[in-house]
Amino acid sequence: MAAYPEKKIADAYFLDLRFRPGAIRDLDLKAKQNGAPVYSYMFAYESPVLDGIAMAWHCAELPYVFANAALVKTSTGGGSDALALSRKVSQAWVNFARNGKPSAEGLPDWPPYTTDKPATMVLDKEPRVAVDLDRKLLQAAGAL
């Protein structure tokens, strides 16, 4: 699992074939315009609620973006990992609104997504930047 080395092989069953392919197509189109920088992220943090059975679902990042991870413990678990990630994600969104570049203490440098280097910030317990994160995987699944 080159795209998601931290996941179990059984997690491939839950590969996002609904939203992620469209996001990649949009990112590619926007990057080709060579206008304002384009930034990509994948929210991959698996909440410990119900032993992580829900994984990282569509819109799961919203409590983190708005610094509300402590307020929705039924969604985030409210533990130290969730709160630390919430501080990073929220600050990255604030900095993006302020100066056009998402950044926060504790996040690696977040490079723009370009046609030559399609970078994606993977937001997880240990955030990381991946280049061309899951294109080959989605192509193999027939989604791209």
Secondary-structure map with pairings?
Layout: H1 20-32, E1 41-43, H2 62-65, H3 73-76, H4 80-99, E2 119-123, E3 128-131, H5 135-140
Parallel strand pairs: 1-2
Antiparallel strand pairs: 2-3
What is this structure, in a nutshell?
This protein has about 140 residues and is α+β, with helices and mostly antiparallel strands. It has helices spanning about 20-30, 60-65, 75, 80-100, 135-140, and strands at about 40-45, 120-125, 130. A 3-stranded mixed beta sheet has the order 1-2-3, with no helix packed on it.
Structural commentary:
33% of the residues lie in helices and 8% in strands. It has a three-stranded mixed sheet with strand order 1-2-3, with no helix packed on it. The two termini are 18 Å apart. Strand 2 and strand 3 form a beta hairpin. It has five helices and three strands; from the N terminus they run H-E-H-H-H-E-E-H. The model has no long low-confidence stretch (mean pLDDT 87). The chain has helices at 20-32, 62-65, 73-76, 80-99, 135-140; strands spanning 41-43, 119-123, 128-131. The chain has 144 residues and is α+β, with helices and mostly antiparallel strands.
